[in-house]
Structures are given as C-alpha cells and as structure tokens.
Design a protein that fits this description.
heterodimer; A: MetI-like fold; B: alpha/beta; 8-stranded mixed sheet; 18 helices
Chain lengths: 371, 541
C-alpha cells in the first residue's frame, strides 16, 4: 500500500464533501447573515428572560413595587395613612429596583409613601399606581411571547391548510372556502376578541386558573380572526405554484395528489407566509395592548393589577396620564415616560428580532436565495 | 466521452412487461385486442376538444398511430397543430376543464386506457345557440385518472421542453430523482437494504484491493474492485459509493479511504426494529404495486366481465391508514437516513448512466445551479429510472443550444438501444427527426396527414404539407435553392376549414378538398397519406 497519498487516477477535482445534515447546512448559511444572528441573539435573550420570569417568587398579577410616586428608597406601600410602618402597609419587593430617572429624586418632599392609598385610581388625585417597570417587563416577557407565537403559528397552520386545499382543488371547494374566509375577514378583530372574552369569561377550563383560561380564550379568539389572512396569501401562492411545470412533471411521473401537494405545492408556497408571520408576531402584542388601552377589563383584574404583557403595560401607563397631571397640583409633575417607553421598546426589540431572524432563516432555507 | 456504465438494475434483464404484470389466467380470459405484442401503444381515432368561452377548439380530431417496441416515432408539425395535446392526451394530463377527450382508444399493454370514456361526461347542444353544455361525472373522471396514474411514470414516462422549469427549485436534484426512484423502484431498494451483508467475509481484502487500485491509478481496476466489494456486501450502492469515495480521495491518505468505505458499510447494519420497519414499508409498496397491477387487470378484464373495483377500494382504505401510521415512525429516524443514503447512491448510478461526468456534485446540487443540458439529462434519468415502455419526449431539445442538442440526442439514441424503450419524439425540428426517428407522423391542425419511415418521408414526401415543410429547410446538396415557405398560417381550430384542413394553403387544392375529408390511403410499405391527390387503397385503420 502506498504510504504517500497518491493523486487519484480519474479524479476530476476535490473530494466530494460528505452529505451534510439539513440543519447544519441551514446553520452554515445563517451564520453568514449578521442581521439574522443579531435577531437570533435578541430572541434568545428574550426567551431566556421569559424563562427567568417564570422562576420569580411573586405571582404574575401582583406588582411588587407600588409606590405612590417613585421616591428613592421607597420601601413601603400603605393602603391608608399614617406612614409606615403600620398594619396597613407592606414591604416593597426590593429585588428589582425600578427605573427611576434621576430627575425624580428631587421630586419628593411634599409627598411621602405613607400618604398614598392603593384604592381605585380615580378616588384621589395624589394616588398613583406605578408598577415596577423592570419587574413588569420581566413578568411581561413570558405572556407576550406565548401570546404572539401561539396566535401567529396556529393561525398560519390553519391558513396554510385551508389555503392549500382551496388553491389546489379549485372549483366549488375553492369558492366555498374563500367565501368562508371572506366572512371571517369581515369580523373586526378587536371587537370580536372583546365580545368573545367577555361572553365566555364565566367558563373556566378545568385545571386552569381563571386567568389562564381567559388568556387561552383570548388566544383562541385571536386565532379565529387571524387565520383568514394566511389562507388568502397561501391560496394566491398555490394558484401560481400549481401551474408550474414541475407540478405537471410530477404528475406525469406518476405522483398522486397528496404527494404533489405535500412535496411540491406547499414547500414552494410557504415563504410568503413566513414573512407575514414574522411581521404579525410584532402586531399581536400591540393589539392586546389596544384592548388594555380601551379599558375593557377582560381579565377581571383588580384596579391595582395590570396585565403582565408588554403591550398592556405600555397602554396602561398611557391611561394614567390624566391622573399624573392631576398630581401636578401638589408640585410633582412628571410624565412617567419610562413606563411607556420601556415596554414599548421591548415590543420593538421583539418584533425586529423575529423579523431579522425570520428573514435570515428564509434566505438560508430557500435554495434559490442562497449566494 | 466517458464510458457509459449501466444503472444497477439494468432494463436489459427485465422480462416482457405485459407478461410480468398480469397473472396468466387474466391474460388468458381477456380477449386479446392487441394484434401485435410489439405494439407498445396504439392510438385509434383520438379526439380531444377544448371547450372554451370562444367556442370548441378541435385540437385533436381523429388521430391514429402505433408505436412499436424499441422504436422512435417522430411527431412533427407547426406550432399549434396538436402535437403536445396528443402527448398530454395519452397520459391524460389535459387540464379538465376546459379540455376533454371526447372519443378514441388508447391501447396500452392490452388494455384500452380510455375505457368508459363515454360515461365520464355527457354533452348537450343547445339547439338555439349551438353551445355545448358538459356535465362531468367527477367520480368517474377521478377513477380514470387514478387508473392512468398507475401507468404514468412506470409505463409511460415523459420529459419536457424546458428542464429548468420541470424541476422543483427547492429540493436538490438527488432528492427529486430519489423520490421518483422510491416511487417506482421502492421495493427493490428496500430489498437490497435488507439483503445487504455488512459483516460478510472478505470485506477487508476487497477494501484493500480498492485502495491498491486507487494507488495504482487504474480507473478500470478501480471500477472492477469496487464492483467486487458491492457483490460481497450485496449492495450495488456500496460499489458506487466506494468508487466515488476513491475518485474523490485525493487529499486524504489511503488509510482514510479505507475508513470511509468501512464507515459507509457500517451504516448498513440495521437493528431488528429497523428491519421490521423496512419490511412494513416494503409491504405497503408491494400493496401499491399490486393495486396498480389490479388496475391494469381491471382495465383488461372490463371488456368481458364485471369490475373488481370494490376489492381495490377495500385495499386502498387499509393502505391509506397504514401509510400514516408507519410513516410517522420512519420520519428522520436512523433507518430513514439509511434509506435516503441508499437512494442517493442509486441516483448517482443513474446519473452516471446518462453520461453526467460528476454525478455526486450534480446530485447534491439544486436545479438552478445546473445548465439546461445537464438538467435535461437529469430529467431523462428520472424518466428512465422507472424503466417505462414508452418515453414521450415533448420537444426535449428546444431550449438547448446546438452542441448540447447533439449530446442529448446521442444519449437518447444510445438509451433506446440499451434499454429498449420506445420513444415518441415531439418536435418541429426536422433535422432532429432525421437524426433520431425511425418513423414519422406529420401532423397538421389536429390531424395526421402523413405517416411513414423516416427515409420515405424525407426522400418522397407525398402530402403537400409535408412537401412544404421539407422545402422550407435548407439542404446541403442544393445550396443555391431558395427556401420556400407555406403561405398562410395554421387555421383557427374553433372554425377549422371544411373538408381537408390544409386546402386553404394547399397549392394543389381541388374542389373536392373543400367538401370531404380525405381518407387515409396506403402509398407504400408503412407509408400512408391523407390526401385526394393519391388514390391508393384505403388504410385498414
């Protein structure tokens, strides 16, 4: 046997690379796309955040830092005067200091934490519920991600099935399904969700807390009005793909309908859906926020609670504007912009990271777009 | 040119298809409508119309021809004369609606594939507006399509004009050819996986022999030693794999090559569970094959006795569920990978068979990475991996440049000699016909105007249309001759001319041409023509 590597007798070039697993190949192409990597990094960060929030000791619906006005070192919240410590006061969770802008540190003086009852918002102009922004954002992570992904993914799956059937079978099936889609498209999204959740909120799913079953109801209500958009996109795409030569060629080589749909039609029609999904993932939390902004108490929250979801947190703070300006009369006049900004920023980060990542993934998966 | 190696399951060894696919008693009891067993396909009086809003397009109006085993039949004519519609009618790929095959017979393997055509739809003519209303019976159409699907690919293969569009852009070439391979040759692939002996005696010396042949730079010896290894292991795909590992093993040491080959042999070791799974899949494929065979038997038997449809439907039901049940298990499993690997190397062997020089790279590539000529070879490999009796090539060289055209034609001729597949070649390029075809059918406006051996048609064209076609191409022996053209253009087939459809453009038109459709007459051995200028005996069919 030759010890030195001999040149191959008939070799036409380099050694054929071994067959690479699909996920390795996808990662190889994804790695080159900086934006996609950034998106992936942010997404992983957000998911880690959501997982961490699950481990926090306090239940989701208790805000851990109710101070009337954010004062540095605010450690107690009391429901009635006098000042702490007293039986009507409880300690503020100090695990997560809120984002208090430095300007506020001089705002104190006339108001103390002890003067702030935690009753309804409208009772006194001095009272103000400020949730602890950092912990609110942390708490908001898990529900925001769950709501956004579950609605978009299941909506897309339903839409994909309906659209593919309608587009490929055509004729009466197409007509029937597309009219059904039209009916669903005519339903106003927010109105439908409000009505559904209000009407069915009495029923709790056994094994789930009332809050969780209402959350599930919200998600289901959103899915019902969300899939028709995908069905339309997919149908349009399938109408193009089914006329392609390769579908005809597959038929000519003996493939049956099911195989053609599964192997040729659907894989070639999913990419636009992919993009639409990545856009919708950012839209859904905003719509949930719109529900909170409109002020419908769909979740039976007490007035000191806020739905731990980024859109809702943001909207909640916007709703506090008049109360805040009411407080101006006693000398503290601060717009709590950080409470609107940071949840909104998280939403923005989430939407943009999903967008970047989905775009990069599409480029990596679609062989036509690889360079 | 590289030597053409045979694909692992060579078509040369296969038995006569009609005998292998039908049980003897079915053949005995059924009447034998085929007069000549060498006739692969007999078309009789085929009529395909398109019912459009503008009116009824009489795209095919009474086409009859035969294709014999191993023969190449050229179908020529101008654009829009119904060549492609004929091909699509044969495989029942006419978009329906608007198109419908109205009547005719397509005899294939002793069965009329258009059996029960008259019950698929009913036609009613509105006496006032003369519009035709069709009532389709979709259940019957679906049944007929299912019967035809059993023949497509395995019996009648097809290759298309633009190969780059005839392949799915998002799967690799190997995946797609492998899909076709699994569809038509699945049982054999699983059999060879189950029969492989990765622990056989003498594997080590065989690998050493490969390494030695590789070191000695002798390609022939390398081929022989890898083939020997394949025989020892009992898997032809291992031979291909070892051959290409050796061919590519330039940078590595000889030890690497041996390890690589050993690794690929080790992959063939399957556990009992995996073997069970493969056996299940094989059973399903056998059921599939059996069902297709039953379809054919049903078709043959239908003329004489009742249908066996109930039995077939029962079987299909069980089959559908088991597909689902066992399909989940194999998804992304180790055995699924073994199957995929086996398929990949078989694809490589098939690509080698269509003279692709670097089949491994091509199989890993995607359609958009390959040139048109390369893709057309891949398409041919895909069509031929099912070993069809008839290959319909619908303008296979139109989208290719001339040098590639020559290679593809050479390949098709070579495959015809080697595999014995009959070819129906559709083209408007007379040069290609002269090069490849044995017999020619000249089509005009949905009818066949002249049929004959290629040399008869070229040396003595009878029909004025055929004469016009031949006069319009340059000839080497008459360089100074001005090229003639046929005046006018192909008529609108919604309102075709009465009588002979060519008469408005015919230089010899007579009064009778406007009134009657000319009969097909025999003007020589195998030479028939439909024209009033000739008065030979009327052809039998």
């Amino acid at each position: 046997m030759a010890s030195a590597p001999p040149p191959s007798p008939v070799s036409s070039g380099r050694r054929p690379s071994p067959r690479i697993a699909q996920y390795k190949r996808t990662w190889f192409f994804l790695r080159r796309n900086t934006l996609a990597l950034v998106g992936l990094g942010i997404l992983i960060f957000l998911i880690a955040m959501a997982l961490y929030a699950l481990t926090l000791p306090i239940p989701w619906n208790q805000m851990d830092g109710y101070c009337g006005v954010h004062l540095p070192g605010c450690t107690y919240v009391c429901t009635t005067p006098p000042s702490p410590p007293g039986p009507n006061c409880y300690a503020v969770n100090q695990n997560f200091p809120s984002f208090i802008p430095p300007t506020l540190s001089t705002a104190g003086g006339t108001l103390t934490a002890g003067q702030l009852p935690l009753g309804s918002l409208s009772q006194t102009p001095y009272s103000q519920i400020y949730y602890n922004t950092l912990s609110g954002i942390l708490r908001g992570a898990d529900w925001s991600l769950v709501i956004a992904f579950s609605i978009v993914v299941s909506g897309a799956l339903i839409g994909l099935m309906v659209g593919a059937i309608a587009g490929f079978w055509g004729g009466a099936v197409d007509e029937a399904l597309m009219r059904l889609v039209d009916i669903f498209l005519s339903i106003p999204v927010i109105l439908f969700v409000i009505i559904t959740v209000s009407v069915f909120s009495q029923f709790t799913i056994p094994g789930l807390s009332p809050f969780s079953s209402r959350m599930l109801l919200l998600i289901l209500a959103f899915i019902v009005v969300w899939w028709p958009f995908y069905a339309r996109i997919v149908r349009g795409q399938v109408l193009v793909v089914r006329e392609q030569k390769y579908v005809e060629a597959a038929r000519a080589s003996g493939a049956k309908k099911g195989r053609i749909v599964a192997r040729h039609v659907i894989p070639n029609s999913v990419y636009p859906v992919f993009i639409q999904m990545s856009l919708d993932v950012g839209t859904v939390p905003l719509l949930v926020g719109a529900l909170a902004f409109l002020g419908f108490n769909l979740f039976g929250l007490s007035s000191s609670e806020v739905l731990p979801e980024w859109g809702s947190l943001s909207a909640f703070s916007v709703n506090q504007f008049d109360a805040v300006f009411g407080a101006c009369s006693v000398g503290v006049c601060v717009l709590p912009w950080w409470q609107i900004l940071f949840p909104g920023l998280m939403l923005f980060l989430f939407a943009i990271s999903v967008n970047f990542f989905a775009d990069g993934l599409r480029d990596a998966l679609d062989p036509r777009l690889r360079r | 040119m590289t030597a053409i190696s045979r694909p692992p399951t060579s078509a040369v060894e296969r038995s006569v298809p009609s005998a292998s696919s039908a049980s003897p008693e079915a053949l005995a009891s059924a009447p034998t409508p085929i007069r000549d067993v060498n006739e692969v396909l007999v078309l009789k009086d085929l009529r395909t119309f398109f019912f459009t809003y503008d009116g009824v397009v009489r795209a095919i109006d009474g086409v009859s021809f035969k294709i014999r085993r191993g023969e190449t039949l050229g179908l020529v004519g101008e654009t829009g004369c119904g060549k492609s519609v004929t091909a699509f009618s044969i495989t029942r790929l006419i978009p329906d609606p608007p198109g419908r095959i109205l009547e005719g017979e397509i005899w294939y393997r002793g069965a009329n594939m258009l059996w029960g055509l008259e019950r698929e739809a009913s036609y009613r003519v509105n006496p006032r507006t003369q519009q035709i209303k069709i009532k389709r019976r979709f259940r019957r159409i679906k049944e007929a399509n299912d019967r035809m699907a059993a023949v497509r690919g395995s019996g009648i293969g097809m290759i298309f004009q633009e190969p780059s569009q005839a392949m799915n852009p998002i799967f690799s070439v190997g995946d797609q050819v492998g899909e076709a391979l699994l569809l038509h040759r699945g049982v054999e692939i699983i059999d060879s996986l189950l029969a492989a002996k990765p622990d056989a005696e003498g594997i080590r010396p065989a690998i050493d022999a490969i390494v030695a042949a590789h070191a000695a730079k002798t390609p022939g010896e390398l081929r022989a030693t890898t083939r020997r290894l394949g025989e020892i292991v009992g898997s032809p795909s291992i031979a291909t794999q070892a051959y290409y590992l050796a061919r590519g093993a330039e940078g590595g040491s000889a030890g690497d090559l041996a390890t690589d080959i050993e690794r690929s042999i080790r992959r063939l070791k399957l556990s009992g569970l995996e073997r069970n799974y493969l056996a299940h899949r094989r059973r399903l494929m056998v059921l599939d094959r059996q069902r297709n065979r039953e379809y054919m038997e049903e078709m043959r038997a239908q003329a004489t006795r009742g249908s066996t449809r109930a039995a077939i439907q029962r079987r299909r039901r069980t089959e559908r569920y088991s597909h689902f049940y066992y399909g989940l298990w194999g998804f992304r499993s180790r055995v699924g990978r073994a199957l995929k690997n086996e398929m990949f190397w078989r694809v490589v062997a098939h690509l080698e068979g269509v003279t692709i020089a670097n089949p491994v790279q091509v199989a890993r590539g995607y359609p958009h990475e390959l040139s048109g000529g390369m893709l057309q070879r891949v398409m041919i490999a895909m069509a031929l991996c099912a070993e069809p009796d008839l290959l319909i090539a619908d303008e296979p060289t139109t989208a290719l440049d001339v040098t590639i055209q020559a290679q593809i034609l050479e390949l098709m001729r070579d495959l015809k000699d080697r595999v014995g597949t009959a070819i129906m070649l559709i083209t408007h390029d007379l040069a290609i016909i002269a090069e490849v075809a044995d017999r020619v059918c000249v089509m005009y406006a949905g009818q066949i105007v002249e049929t004959g051996l290629v040399r008869d048609i070229f040396s003595r064209p009878l029909h004025p249309y055929a004469q016009g076609l031949l006069a319009s191409i340059p000839r080497l022996d008459q360089p100074d001759k001005e090229l003639a053209s046929i005046p006018g253009s192909v008529p609108n087939l919604i309102h075709p001319p009465e009588g002979c459809r060519f008469h408005p453009r015919c230089p010899y038109a007579m009064p009778i041409c406007k009134e009657k459709r000319p009969p097909t007459t025999v003007e020589g051995p195998g030479h028939t023509v439909a024209c009033f200028l000739y008065e030979g005996p009327v052809a039998a069919d």
